Amino acid sequence: RSVAACYPVVILLGFIGASPVFIPWTMVTDVVDDYRVKTGKQLDTIFFSLSLFAFRLAAAVALGLTAIALKIGGYITGYCVQPEAVGSTLRLLMSVVPTCLTLIGILFLWRYPITTERQQRNKAALEEMKKAKTQEEFTNDKFLPNDTKQQNEQLLQ
User: Fold this and answer.
1) Are 122 and 32 in contact (CB under 8 A)?
2) How many C-alpha atoms does 125 have within 13 Å on its Cβ side?
């Protein structure tokens, strides 16, 4: 029961608690890349905005449903001693509900797999797209200063 023994546990819990915050954002970047390779459209801001909206909406719905569940469970605002049903409701809200929602999330992930190989193919395709765009801009004189463009136009006339 020493303080030193608590530190590894707290660090481990920090990693576990932080993973739902950081992992979805890394997944969004993979989805954005995959979409860009498939369609050629770059809609990063829309994907990130919709993801942020979905996270915020999910948090708001979760808070509302938690309040409703606690009210059904018999929670009494302002009282220190609560009915036994409130404890059962909290245990369900902290164990069964997250487990079920995680399984539903895994089913969605299973339907849209982005494997390491697919990630590497997307990265290579994006690099090719970038090279092609750079080459196109260079051949269209987009990288040349204005006076050089004018000189090239004069030579062509």
Assistant:
1) no
2) 14
Rounded to whole angstroms, how far apart are CA atoms 18 and 39?
33
Structure-model confidence comparison of residues 21 and 98, the more confident one: 98
Predicted pLDDT of residue 120: 93
Angle between helices 116-139 and 3-39 (to 10 degrees): 50
For 6-30, the pLDDT digits (tens) are 888 888 888 888 888 888 888 899 9
What does the DSSP 8-state code read for residue 75? -
What would the DSSP string read from start to end of 80-136? SS--HHHHHHHHHHHTHHHHHHHHHHHHHHHHS---HHHHHHHHHHHHHHHHHHHHH
